[in-house]
Amino acid sequence: MPKGLKLPSMPFVRNMFVLSVFLVSIFTLPVLVHAQSIDSSNGSTSVQLPQDQVTTVKAQVINIDSQSMETVPGTNTQTPDQTIDVKILEGPDVGNVVTFDNDNVMLKVGELFYMTTTVSAETGQTYYTVSDPYRLNALMFFVGLFVLLVVVFGGKQGIRGLLSLIGSFALILYVFLPGILHGYSPILMSIGVASLIIIVGSYVTHGLTKTTSAAVVGMIVTVLITGLLAHFAIEFTHLTGYENEEAAYLNIYTNGKLDLVGLLLGGMLIGLLGVLYDAAIGQAIAVEELHTVAPHLSRWKIYRRAIRMGREHIGALVNTLAIAYVGVSLPILLLFSTSPSPFSIIINQDNFATEIIRTVVGSIGLVLAVPITTLLACYILIRSDKNGAKISEVQEEIKKEEQVIEHYGHHH
């Protein structure tokens, strides 16, 4: 065990864990009280129109009859088009061969894909379209490669990280998304689930230690502050949550009962977690290491040195977060770069303003995480009283190092 740093006592770790859960409970309990289910019906009597019968099955291209470039009507845009013979591989029509035009994704002979079959409710006609190429084999290969590299080069810590990642996805898929669809407040669900992801991920990956507890509390406090800031930013900028077509479809699917503005805020917080985790853990470990090598330093001195390290971290993290958001928004940027509208009008539009607020609020959260986590780590990891024995021990080590250096100088 490093000199100058004691292992955390179990009562302390238990108390910090209870504190973390308590902070989460403050914001998640109101959700359980005020939940309202989203029903697909709106309570009014309406005429049900006949619905087309749509099914999607796996199929394989057995022949390409023709392939050419076609002009999109009303434009000068050229798009590829092919006529293909397809064998159905699953479903009630397995083994049947059908022929249709494909202008979606150009396929090759022998290639697998998912085919959508639509039977019109009005005419009874059947239409075939290419839904998506079959990507599952490639997806499994790259996921397997990722897991293998993490295990080989990360060892036990890498395995813990994978377990933490699985737990995070489980919380999002089985707690956050169902909660949103059942009418829970997206704002409170986002804060609560984000905090749970922080608690589970941190303790699974780094264990029940004082350092982990300091980082956990720092991240939860940062998430709460960032959540409030995001709420006010969205309100002041009058963002609607309709930054993409998926949000519009989701609003129609839920009959307008889903809080898209709250969902937008939740996306901001969830997207911040990965980089926030890096910043908080890094600062807590920095305080731990500084206290280990210099246990005679006061909290304030270690805080100042850790903050100096954190400033370098802030620059890299903010740049990382901003570039990540820009990368996701490249199609939007390209679209607006060709627009004849003035720059002020472009950035004022809802989808562009949403990305700006997402980037700025996330960056503010990262900046706040450094001083908050560092301050909490100094309070948790460093004792307020100075241990004279430790100081004497450090001074003795310094004397020994000086003697070694002096002896080395005499011989060289």
Overview of the molecule:
The protein is elongated. Residues 1-8, 26-46 and 385-391 have low confidence and may be disordered. The protein has helices at residues 10-33, 136-181, 186-206, 210-237, 245-253, 260-293, 299-328, 330-337, 343-348, 350-381, 388-411; strands spanning 53-71, 78-88, 97-102, 112-119, 126-133. By secondary structure, the chain is α+β, with helices and mostly antiparallel strands. It has two domains: 10-36 and 183-396, Up-down Bundle (Multidrug efflux transporter AcrB transmembrane fold); 53-136, OB fold (Dihydrolipoamide Acetyltransferase, E2P), CATH 2.40.50.
Number of domains: 2
From the N-terminal CA to the C-terminal CA, the straight-line distance is 35 Å
Order of helices and strands: HEEEEEHHHHHHHHHH
Name of the CATH class of the largest domain: Mainly Alpha
Q: State the total count of DSSP E strands.
A: 5
Q: From the helix content, strand content and strand pairing, which structural class follows?
A: alpha+beta
Stated plainly, the CATH topology of the largest domain is called: Multidrug efflux transporter AcrB transmembrane fold
Helix % is 55-70%
Percentage of residues in strands: 5-15%
* CA gyration radius, whole angstroms: 29 Å
Shape summary: elongated
Assigned CATH architecture of the largest domain: Up-down Bundle
With helices defined by DSSP (H or I, 4 residues minimum), what is the helix count?
A: 11
